[in-house]
Amino acid sequence: MMTPVEMLAATAEALRVPSAVDLAAIVIGALTGGLLAAREGFAVSGVLLLAVSGGLGGGLIRDVLLADGPPVAMTNPAYLPTVAVTATVTFYFSGWLSRLTGLLVVLDAITLGFFTVIGAQKAQLAGLPSASVVFIGTVTAVGGAVIRDVLLAQRADIVQPGPYNAVAALLGATALTLLAGPAGLPPLPVATIVIVLVAALRVLSVWRGWEAPVALDLPERARSRLVARPRRRRRRR
Cα-flanking dihedrals φ and ψ of residue 178, to 5°? Predict the structure, then answer.
């Protein structure tokens, strides 16, 4: 029978995301941020800064919230060089990369799914409750975009009506906690399901024009419907 330490180690190994996949997600995030900087006409420092925020911003926020030693972005020797290379490619080939809009939308959606899973699973390993797992997963997925929008001095994209971003990450992180908790599914199938779910929601919302719901006044809407019904009846008569 496994000891608690051995069980924790086995769980950590099962939840560990392959380094190649992790780096691929960082590259796409950095590419998105770098392209936005290039479109805005930023200098090389601006392209690098937005590439860092897009590729590593969510992970930095996650690791600060988890308070589990220095952020992985600072301790992993491959992360910052990967972002720097991506920013350089973006700086010199921004025009060509901008033509790949459809591909970038799909890759960005997949990256959103990966970041959601990585954040939520790290929160699970830290022994946090389900609500905190959902929160950390969502923040990891959209944190880089929030930092990017702050640097651009504009309203954060995730708080405006538009294609699913934070909504997709929130639903994905919630699905992960349910599938890995009450459902008791193994970590790898859960990660795959969540990544596909988040990516599909993001892509479909872009292509079909779905928008995240906005605040509404239910009493006012109910009152308007009650007033409209008598008018319709009078017209029918």
Answer: -75, -45
